Amino acid sequence: MRRHAWLIPAIGLLLSACRRRESVPPAPSPILPFDGAAAFDEVRRFVAIRPRDAATPGAERAALYLRDRLRELGVEAEVDAFADLCPVGTATFRNVIGRIPGQGKGLVILGSHYDTQAGIGAEFEGANDGGSSTGVLLELARCLAAGPARSWETWLVFFDGEEAMRRYGPADGLHGSRHMARQLAESGRAADVKAVIVLDMIGDRDLTVTVPRNGASWLISEVFESARLEGARDKFSLYPYEIGDDHDPFHQAGLPAVDLIDFHFGSGPGRNDYWHTMEDRMDKIAPESLDLVGRVALRLLARMADRVEP
Ligand SMILES: [Zn+2]
């Protein structure tokens, strides 16, 4: 009898657990925490493809790699190849787009360029400039693909041709982002865009994110608040100038856009002397910096959910 006395309540518990499972919808799978070491590993593997100057075979290899890596992470992905005028004539550029479906028609774009500045050297890694944000975006793809469904669609966009061949202008630099801003306007999807969040040069061991003034002020405030909640408000500041980066074509088109960039990448505080030099290597970036920016980005998305959902 002692056995039965133990068994009957146990069976009862089991039955009630089964009933509960029938009546309550399953809990959404929790969002995976961002892993800075995994992001660092993504950067290391990605910059093995080098250099990645736009309109070269290296850039094409990088684009196909990113498409395949997104698919491995469970994200539907495609390469959008397009011709654009640049200083050497008309060239082919390739944006790589990963799409995570949402329940509504809203759209949040997370962006990073993956091309390298031309003419630095055959072994130029661009570990920080092009590499760091690309690794963070891949790790964000892993976290977001496994997380609960959002009310909006999320695009992870790897822009080609961010770097200017000679001098930034209507036919030099920002090719991928200008192309996508145009596509959004032409397809009528621009109205659905809730935010465009661009990451660039965010791997510096001495991280100081200098958010440029050209961006949506409410989104800049949300970045600072997200940084504060991650205990790193002191590493984020408003840059006193505008910065020409992939967020700008969206900002110019009137879409809410922001750029998380650390434009102090150098041998000492405030210096930028590693930028566009062979010094931009893996030994200049740190998993902790990637981790912090990844966590701030996830925090920002969570705060956006509170803000834009009905
Ligand atoms: Zn650059």
Radius of gyration computed on alpha carbons: 22 Å
Q: State the CATH topology.
A: Aminopeptidase
CATH homologous superfamily, by name? Zn peptidases
Task: Report the end-to-end length measured between terminal Cα atoms.
Answer: 57 Å
Share of helix, binned = 25-40%
Number of domains: 1
**Unreliable residue stretches:** 1-22
Bound molecules: zinc ion
Task: Find the count of extended strands (DSSP E, 2+ residues).
Answer: 8
- Name given to the CATH architecture: 3-Layer(aba) Sandwich
Q: What does the overall shape look like?
A: globular
> What is the H-and-E element order?
HHHEEEHEHEEHEHEH
The largest β sheet comes out as:
6 strands, mixed
CATH class: Alpha Beta
What can be said about this structure in brief?
The protein is an alpha/beta fold and 310 residues long. It contains eight helices and eight strands, in the order αααβββαβαββαβαβα.
Task: Outline the secondary-structure elements.
Blueprint: H1 2-23, H2 36-46, H3 57-72, E1 76-86, E2 89-100, E3 107-113, H4 127-146, E4 153-159, H5 175-187, E5 193-200, E6 209-211, H6 217-229, E7 236-238, H7 248-252, E8 257-261, H8 287-308
Parallel strand pairs: 3-4, 3-5, 5-8, 6-7
Antiparallel strand pairs: 1-2, 2-4
Helix pairs in contact: 2-4, 2-8, 4-8, 6-8
Zinc ion (ZN) binds at residues 117, 129, 163, 276.
